[in-house]
Amino acid sequence: MTLSHDVAGADDAPAVVLLHSGVCDRRMWDAQWTDLADAGYRPVRCDFRGFGRSPVPDRPYSNADDVLELLDTLGIERAALVASSSGGRVALEIAARRPERVSALALLCSALPGHEVSAELREIGAREDGLLEAGDVAGAVELMVDTWVGPEGGPDVREAVRGMQRRAFDVQLAALEEFEPIRAEFDLAAVTAPCLAVSGAHDVADFREIAAALPGLLADARHVELPWAGHLPSLERPSAVTELLVGFLRGTVPAADR
């Protein structure tokens, strides 16, 4: 199955693949979309299975393999990966398993394979599960919005996240059968791409700790903490994140002037 996706920019421009968080879908990159193309890149954004316009899985699946299949379909041999939250786990798997396919990594409040989840994060997950089991989907949506949208996220941002999370819940809860993603074994030491690890000062501690730890786990990584950000900085202050991303990409995957 080819993931639902969008492509912009020139075919010969360096590809930048945008991977969404677990509370959003590919629409979370609306603010970066045109600017990346204008900066000389070829942005590609997709919906993981069960999010946005991609259907729920009908068998065990791998998000990383789905993204690699999409790149093959589009004829993209090598790409920079820009990923948010759980999308960061997918990006790291691709970069470790297929390092020759990844030119750079920009990880925004990324998850990390093997991370030991804190009591705070377990409690949030338990509250979410309890609300969904009780049939209170709206309540679960509001919990996710309150948890993951930082103080810079105004009413429009909260409404956007609310809509994307509600879509994901509705699609996934309607599935006749639930399939878990396939967890592949891989070694982060195999990652060769330069990495920008971004954290938000107002985010849950797990994600701040992961971003701070990545320079010690990857061959070429640096950590930047945004003092104003929560968990979704690309939505909370879009122009600041676009500037940060374009600056990083220009230093690692230069694009021709257009």
UniProtKB/TrEMBL annotation:
Organism name: Streptomyces fildesensis
Superkingdom of the organism of origin: Bacteria
Designated name of the protein: Alpha/beta fold hydrolase
Keyword Hydrolase: yes
InterPro entries the record matches: AB_hydrolase_1, AB_hydrolase_fold, Carboxylesterase_BioH
Keywords annotated in UniProt: Hydrolase
Domain AB hydrolase-1: 16-242
Single Gene Ontology MF annotation: hydrolase activity
Entry annotated with the keyword Hydrolase: yes
